[in-house]
Design a protein that fits this description.
By secondary structure, this protein is an alpha+beta fold. It has helices spanning 37-42, 47-61, 74-87, 121-129, 136-140, 177-182, 186-192, 202-211, 263-279, 338-341, 357-361, 363-366, 374-381, and strands at 21-23, 30-32, 63-66, 117-120, 155-164, 172-176, 196-200, 231-235, 237-239, 246-248, 255-258, 284-287, 294-299, 303-307, 318-325. It has a 7-stranded mixed beta sheet. Strands 12-6-14 form a 3-stranded antiparallel beta sheet. The structure holds 2-oxoglutaric acid and fe (ii) ion. Fe (ii) ion binds at residues 145, 147, 305. InterPro entries: AtsK-like, TauD-like_sf, TauD/TfdA-like.
Amino acid sequence: MAEGQGRKPLELSGALDKFGYEETTPEIGREYVNVNIVDDLLKAESADDLLRDLAITISRRGVVFFRAQTNLSNDLQKEFVHRLGQLAGKPEESSVHIFPLAPAHVPEGGTPDRHISYVNSVGFKYMFEKMPNMDKRRFDAAEWHTDIQFEPVPADYTSLRVIKLPETGGDTLWASGYELYNRLSKPYQSFVDGLTVTCRADCVLMAIRNRGEKIEEGERGNPLNTGTALTAVHPVVRTNPVTGWKSIFAVGQFSKRINEVNQYESDELLKKFYGMIQDNHDLQCRFKWRNPHDIAIWDNRSVFHRATFDYMNLGERSGNRAVGIGEAPYFDPGSKSRAEALGLVKEPQSNGAPATGHAKACPSMAAGGGAVCPKMAAMAANGAAAGGNGMAH
Ligand SMILES: O=C(O)CCC(=O)C(=O)O
Ligand SMILES: [Fe+2]
């Protein structure tokens, strides 16, 4: 049995209830208002309860934001992300990731630190200019991905604190992997459950080949993350140990090949998952960085994210990223989708379309086969909006 399989999801204690927040969209994202991570959480008397509840909240909402955390140093940011993971039950051997390449550019005032990745526009420019076949479009919007998916033991929580902002632009987007899974029909879910995907860091391997850069071969946050292969096999449907919910995990630039099907089918499936994110913007959220030291923390097990490179003439953008290492990904066949766990599953009609509102209560429509409700048809003819269960008859 894979490690973590059968693990019980974590429950909130309510420790965070005293803080105000706004849900970014119904599906994903939460922004806490007027909370200082250092004073109100890390150094609070009940820090463990607060941080455990925050980890659970990040895992449930996918991504959480705090504004203007000006007293959060690199060291505290690393401690923060590591403690979130520990309190949410990550294995003892997992710590904070070391990116396999040394940063191409440590921004002014930044100290070289192998546990911090500098997400810096000057560094990107340097990197992109040296990349063959880098077309304009890919320069404007990075690709959807989940961080360091090429490691055998990849990320749980990533924290990104943006320190230097352009005049405008540089928003980051997140998309819910839970909801990608929810939007597949039952037979499709059964088909993808249990498949595996090979992930590889081609961009890093290319930098080594083309620019002769040296790889960090020592432990990168876990004894299993070593060597130069930068390749791992993971489940296509991953169970999040904190929520117990299933998520599609095979999305983005590192996901190369679905192993149990032929090349053509693998290409099709990967394209389908990626396309579902692009076609369903109601499972995404977008964050506008407004102040230096705004911070986002997300759960890479169940969300994807994407940077926007639309600010190149509008000033430098620079962020400090600390990435926690979680557990080896697993698929627990006993786990549920988020919709099933929360009782949000809609009953399918015989034509496969989900029955909602009036359609559930109406005897004509419940008969299926595309039968039309006479009352709704009459109301539509009168120009009235038909909806809700209030029209049951
Ligand atoms: O710069 C951004 O908006 C996000 C970059 C990114 O992918 C990351 O920090 O993991
Ligand atoms: Fe990333």
